[in-house]
Amino acid sequence: MTGRKNIVAGIVAFLIALAILFPLLYCLSASFMTEKEIYATRVLPSGLGLANYQKALQQAPLFKFILNSLIVSVSCVVLQLFTGSLAGYAFGCLEFKGKNALFKIFLATMMIPGNAIIISNYLTIIDFSLIDTHWAMILPYMTSAFCVFNMRQAYKSLPVELHEAAVIDGASSFQYLMNVGAPLTLPSLGAVGIQTFLSVWNQYLWPMLVTSKTSLRTVQIGIGMLNNSDAMAYGVIMAGTVVVMIPLVIVFIIGQKTLITGLTAGAVKG
Amino acid sequence: MNKGRKKPITVEPYLYILPSLLLFILFVFYPFAKTIWLSLNVTNNNGGVISFAGIDNYKATLTSSTFWFAMSVTVRYALMVVVGSILMGLICGIVANEMFRGRGIVRTVYAMPMAISSACIAVIITFILHPTIGILNKVLGTQYRWLRDIKLALPSISVVTIWMNIGMNYIFTIAALQNVDISLYEAGAIEGTNFFQKHWYITMPAISPTLFFLLIINVINSFQSYAQIRLMTQGGPGKFTTNIVYLIYRETFENMRYSSGATMSVLLFIVLFILTSIQFKAEKAVTY
């Protein structure tokens, strides 16, 4: 591209950005509005009162919802990175019989849409008596082909000499994995971790099916409950929505570089 | 490539693969087989098998107008969402690839929808679309009942989904754009191409593998939308926004007809499998 600053492109870019941000900004704005202001369909509130936030936190245990979402999402991230690193290391660095066939079996799971097996998984969770537990939300998401695939790519790109040196030094494979592999695959762990966090945090149907107690609800279901509690209290609903959006926006802003480079590296280079 | 030295065969590699393999068996392959099994049987209210039904469930589903209506909703919705999402990603990518002040902020904003859950944006847009107090009707000076109108409800939900998809489509598009060989554009500039010619004749072919990848991802995702429909219209008005996943949910968990839900799940898998295969074939035929 030319080094010249392109003013037209800049204006267009900001207009699009504003359009994308509009729902979020309007949500923030409405979260400060009184009921009267909501009814009058104002664009901006007259003040920055926190009454809606107080009401939202009284009506629904939002922090409990956030805590539940955090427990589930963080557990899934940690467990996926662990199982994914183990399998990724085996597929990327070790030779063994049936490796290609096993890898294909792993990739085949990507072809089965999650919603097509949700009924049977629900029955499994009932059989395990895990309804209304955090485990019900975590167990099916403790590994993923996406994670294994990305960790395999990461381990493949490590120099073979490193692995050989470690083995000559008498390190077991597992020690290599923990002491050498984990630190060196950190960029991939970061990207896959953030992607997993976002997708688990945003799940809706599965957590809704396997929990019924309010105390176990995740934020997505919680926002739905707020939505149904009082149809006209949109100021309160918007305040609740702001509260549950904040943690993820923070995770995103901190992790966006890692996420974007990590996600696109494999896809673009092919 | 992995030209590692020959290692004596040990159980170690298998031990590393075992956790993932067991989980896949338990939560992907077993439920997949079980779903097929349920679809071939008569089930009770708890999803237990009563008797073998052969292909009766498939006959019933494939002759049911409800199923076909949900399929047509799913396809129309997917068309709007896939075209809209890829187009928005492309526009954002091309714009954000230009040089201008404040580009960093713009790039963060374009990727931001990735971090907003479907539940949150669905609730916000429902408020914006509210017939009486919503800001959209006020700005337009209209009184549409966006989510209760049989013509407007599905496009309204599609817009929400497109908004949600912008982030992912944008980041893949811009990553591909940054890899396009600059000399191609320089050659184009000598030929005197204008803005649209430049992107139509140079950019599009160069990033077509990424666009195909996005096509597949967007199709698979749009066929499986649930949260926004549940929160915005509950499948209504009538059945006009009941897509296949919403119908599966209803049949299984509201009507307790597990075998019917399982049958539709298998059909959903088959449809997605065929669509994905066609796209892979098309990719091989078209990309450079």
Can you walk me through this structure?
The complex is a heterodimer of chains A (270) and B (288). Chain A has 270 residues and is mainly α. Chain A has a single domain, classed as MetI-like (MetI-like fold), CATH 1.10.3720. Helix content of chain A is 73%, strand content 0%. Chain A is built from 14 helices and no strands. Chain A has helices spanning 7-30, 35-39, 51-59, 62-93, 99-108, 118-127, 134-138, 145-156, 160-168, 173-184, 186-201, 205-210, 219-229, 234-269. In chain A, helix 4 packs across helix 8, helix 8 (145-156) packs antiparallel against helix 11 and helix 11 (186-201) packs antiparallel against helix 14 (234-269). The longest helix of chain A is centred in the last third of the chain and has 36 residues, at 234-269. The radius of gyration of chain A is 23 Å and the shape is globular. Chain A starts with 6 loop residues before the first helix and ends with a helix. Chain B has 288 residues and is mainly alpha-helical. Chain B has a domain at 64-256: MetI-like (MetI-like fold, Orthogonal Bundle), CATH 1.10.3720.10. Chain B is built from 13 helices and 2 strands; from the N terminus they run H-E-E-H-H-H-H-H-H-H-H-H-H-H-H. Chain B has helices spanning 12-39, 56-62, 65-96, 103-111, 118-128, 135-140, 153-178, 182-191, 195-206, 208-222, 227-232, 244-254, 258-286, and strands at 41-43, 49-52. Chain B has a two-stranded antiparallel ribbon with strand order 1-2. In chain B, a hairpin with a 5-residue loop joins strand 1 and strand 2. In chain B, helix 10 packs antiparallel against helix 13 (258-286). The two termini of chain B are 24 Å apart. The model of chain B is unreliable at 1-6 (pLDDT under 50).
